[in-house]
Amino acid sequence: MPPACPSTARRFRVLLLAVLAGCGAEAAPAFERPPAPVRLAVAETRDVPVYLDEIGRCVARETVSLQPQVSGRITGVHFADGADVKAGEVLFTLDARPFEARVAAAQAALTQAQAKLDWSRLELDRATQLGDTRAIAQSDIDARRNAVDVAQAEVQGDEAELRTAQLDLEYCTLRSPLDGRVGQRLADPGNVVKENEGTLVVIERLDPLYVDFTVAENDLSSVQREMAAGALSVEVRLPDEPTEARGGELTFLDNSVQGSTGTVKLRATIPNADRRFWPGRFVKVRLVLSTLQGAVLVPAAATQMSANGPFVYVVGSDETAELRPVQPGQRQDELLVIAQGLQAGERVVVEGQLGVTPGGKVHEVDAAPPAAAAPGPASP
Fold this sequence. Notes:
This protein is α+β, with helices and mostly antiparallel strands. Helix content is about 25%, strand content about 40%. It has helices at about 5-25, 95-130, 140-170, 220-230, and strands spanning about 35-40, 45-65, 70-75, 85, 90-95, 175, 180, 190-195, 200-215, 235-240, 240-255, 265-270, 280-300, 305, 310-315, 320-325, 325-330, 335-340, 345-350, 360-365. Strands 1, 14, 15, 16, 19 and 20 form a six-stranded mixed β-sheet that branches. The radius of gyration is 45 Å and the shape is elongated. The two termini are about 85 Å apart.
């Protein structure tokens, strides 16, 4: 095949370049990213509390270890373990026969001393009458007067002995000193107990209940300042019931900071008639210091974190997203206070932030439907 003519090849190249230049003259349309699907929420204003969240422990308001005040054998237990008891209710009884005998002996001694006193007074009256006629010496009259004083002192001593014996007899019946709940009994009928030795049962008052907790010393000034303005309220929650709070009042602030931990102890008092809270149990404590008026709140999911700090995506009226740095405050359940950077009424992105670019378009979508429950096993 003969070689192509140089002039023909040159014309072909020129034609090809012209065709390519003509194709390049028509610019391809620029790629536009579709609007990101997001869920939005509107920033709102509300009065919210300023608080400190701490961990506390429930403590019985009063705890009594019931001990015998006389020695003796237990003859009866009059309560069930773990029962609620009233003040004055009989819990234990001891063998009272030895103490009844002592009461009888003390009563007899008192009667004898009283008779001796009466005789001494009669002798003194007779001597006094004879003394008026000078039929008896003055020394005899003084001796009879002294005998009356001695007999009267003996009566007073026997009266004290009788009261002691009666008190010991009363101690044979052990009663509850308060309204509360008893624990497990530590002694059974038939056991011999000694005076002021050993504990028979522990009784705790459960209503109202104390909640002890601590705050850092850096927060102490705020607590003291708000306490000076008035009583502070407390919200107490069980770990397994975080949404159900029991209101109470701060009733105690310790007089020193614990040097080993840098904390100060506080105590709240809460009602507990339903026995929902139990001594020794850990609880979540929220100490409310004050109220923040007109705070701006958004769902906590709206805030994101970047290398420059927290931010939110704010969506304008043209559906364009703006990356807005913010200063978050305290969390209020599912909402978060925005101290700076956001105004009430502005819309923020709460879902779909990963698909949003600053200055990009977004479109709002409805909330995703809840996931269907997994089908259970077929009935046989």
